[in-house]
Design a protein that fits this description.
Layout lengths: L1 H5 L16 H12 L3 H19 L2 E4 L1 E6 L25 H14 L3 E6 L5 H18 L8 E5 L5 H10 L3 E3 L7 H7 L6 H14 L2 E8 L6 H14 L3 E6 L19 H15 L4 E4 L1 H6 L3 H7 L4 E2 L6 H4 L13 H10 L3 E2 L8 H6 L3
Helix pairs in contact: 2-9, 2-10, 3-10, 4-5, 5-6, 6-8, 9-10, 10-12
The protein binds iron/sulfur cluster.
The site of iron/sulfur cluster has 9 residues, from loops.
Length: 367
């Protein structure tokens, strides 16, 4: 039972794994993920917790999450924000509104913000976001302070647009691959969106100098344990700095909601196992405890942290807009105080006053 777990040894970047991965490595990971053995589940999470305590301590870093726009030109088959979903009220916060939220976050002691939206590739939109970032930096980065750290999650853009946003002051970027299997990727996205383009974007972000985050959904229709194992090895091979993993939660107004049932036995537990394995394979990455994990189970936050998560995203989106930022059904929103209470109860510390960057980034860049 735990022999399978023991094949996953601690390494900085999966250095004990080969690439392309050996079939045996994929099989070992796949077997762990597919197992319904409760003892194995407990051992795996204990190992991840031990690894995280050794390498990262007990700190959990908040990113104030501002979902500033739900406008999107894409049509991903699983997402409630998809362009074709006409049942959604669309909104975009003004620059003044976003900057006011950033100021509020700063005054409360946050050191990092995550600005998230649907995908709009126009130069006008990128200029808008760049100017917002500059204004946030202007009001927070002075008197020797580096100001609010800015994480972006606004989709696939051109290299120069990523550069423009980096030059404006953003330094982390989240772009989920959703699955590392090109065939499954094509089943989740319309023909205009390509797996290759997603890979190119991830590489561009890395080349520019961002701390790069990616992630997948767990429990997608048609997804297999072998594909999830390959996802883990993909994160290692891509040497990613940050990771977000969440169980797939269907949105009723999307084509995928009427797709076939998932063959993943328990997406919640499988997500936790994926997180624990990722923590063991890449001890120094930052890993978020996704809202999807917290939505699907009341103990999602505590279990996600036990499985290795060290980042949370308290939502700062105005209340009147939250229900329209509908990536999936019945999304849970937790305030900073709620998160702090649950994190403390789990024996961890929610930390203000530090950026909490990914240690993996500095190690891979030898900084
Ligand atoms: S996943 Fe992102 S790009 Fe796709 S429809 Fe949703 S918001 Fe748009």
């Amino acid at each position: 039972m735990s022999a399978a777990v023991n094949t996953i040894s601690l390494s900085d970047n999966g250095g004990n794994l080969s690439w392309p991965p050996l079939q045996a490595e994929r099989e070992a990971l796949s077997n762990v993920l597919a197992s319904q053995d409760e003892d194995l589940f407990a051992v795996l999470l204990d190992k991840a917790e031990e690894c995280r305590a050794t390498v990262l301590g007990n700190k959990v870093y908040p990113r104030g999450l501002i979902e500033f726009s739900n406008l999107c030109q894409c049509d991903c088959y699983y997402c409630g924000l998809r362009h074709s979903n006409t049942r959604l009220g669309r909104y975009r916060l003004t620059a003044d509104e976003i900057v006011a939220l950033a100021r509020e976050a700063w005054e409360k002691g946050y050191q990092s913000l995550a600005l998230q939206s649907g995908e709009l590739k126009s130069s006008r939109e990128v200029k808008f976001v760049s100017e917002v970032i500059k204004r946030i930096k202007d009001i927070t980065a002075h008197d020797g302070s580096q100001g609010l750290g800015i994480t972006l999650s606004i989709g696939e853009l051109a290299y120069q647009q990523y550069q423009q946003l980096f030059d404006a002051g953003a330094h982390r970027y989240l772009l989920r691959i959703e699955t590392s299997d090109p065939k499954l990727f094509n089943q989740l996205h319309p023909p205009g969106q390509s797996f290759q383009k997603r890979l190119e974007c991830l590489q561009a972000l890395k080349d520019i100098g961002y701390q790069v985050g990616t992630g997948v959904m767990v429990g997608l229709p048609g997804q297999t344990y072998e594909q999830l194992a390959a996802d883990l090895l993909f994160f290692v091979e891509r040497d990613i700095d940050m990771l977000g993993l969440g169980p797939y939660i269907p949105h009723p107004d999307t084509p995928l909601a009427s797709g076939p049932e998932t063959v993943i036995a328990n997406p919640y537990k499988t997500t936790l196992k994926m997180m624990a394995l990722a923590r063991l394979l890449m001890p120094y990455i930052n890993m978020v405890c996704s809202t999807a994990l917290q939505t699907i189970s009341a103990d999602g936050l505590a279990m996600g942290i036990k499985a290795g998560a060290n980042v949370v995203m308290p939502v700062m989106t105005p209340e009147e807009n939250r229900s329209d930022y509908s990536l999936y059904a019945a999304k849970k929103y937790s305030s900073f105080e709620q998160l702090r209470h649950e994190i403390n109860a789990a024996g961890y510390e929610l930390v203000l006053g530090e950026w909490g960057d990914s240690p993996h980034y500095f190690r891979r860049r030898q900084l």
